[in-house]
Amino acid sequence: MANLNVVSGYADAPSTPQVRRIGSADLKRALAQGLEDFWAMPTHVVFIGLIYPVVGLLLGRLLLDNDALPLIFPLISGFALLGPVAGVGLYELSRRRELGMDTRWRHAFEVVRAPGFLGILALGAILALMFLCWLVISEGLYEWLFGSRSPQTLASLVQESLSTRHGWALIILGNFVGFLFAASAFSISVVSFQMMLDRGVGPAVAVATSLKAVAANPGPMALWAIFIAAALVIGFIPLFFGMAIVIPVLAHASWHLYRRVVA
């Protein structure tokens, strides 16, 4: 602990590593390996994955009880910003399976012993701050266009959004701002948490490597981001319960993508 720096990692940690150029075949292989991990560890992976639909339902109920209906979509879409943090325990399971180690579900929580755990917390806090900023901006956009009044029901919110000029302005501006948040979060975290878990580097090196990986592979990374977004939409549709499968598969696949991208 005396040699650990939350920002830069261990004093003897390597500098920013090289990144490889990848293609669509690498994405398919990473996804296939993620599915293999999921089927090889289904019981505890689903157990961990069930946390996310439960949290989603609780947050949704909280919004309904507090007349915060305009924040439902920003909350659901912005929840994806925290995906890399939520997947850390699953990265650990993939790492252990890769090494032929025991992969019982309790090992997902052993990330707290990882050399880069403080860095993981630091970068996780940054993503959480981005999530909160997204919610604040979303609320501000709604109040700017519709005033301080809140819709009475979810149906009236949908109708108001789709049938008025202010509603379409909210959809366009909200999605544009959301895209900026999502693209930023993806760029700084696509391989960051995996690196800190695997190599003990700090957020500075991990984020620099993540940005370098995106810059070196703009097409494949954009395709991967689109796939993640589509998968999350599918997972959200059945009252969040699809996330119990989508989140673990994406997390395991992201670990294998990291292995293919970072030399």
Automatic annotation (TrEMBL):
Entry-linked InterPro entries: DUF2189
KW Transmembrane helix (keyword) present: yes
Pfam families reported in the protein's UniProt record: DUF2189 (PF09955)
Keyword hit for Lipoprotein: no
Assigned keywords, A-Z: Membrane, Transmembrane, Transmembrane helix
Membrane-spanning residues: 38-59, 71-93, 114-137, 168-193, 222-250
Name of the protein in question: DUF2189 domain-containing protein
Organism: Alsobacter sp. KACC 23698
Lineage: Bacteria, Pseudomonadati, Pseudomonadota, Alphaproteobacteria, Hyphomicrobiales
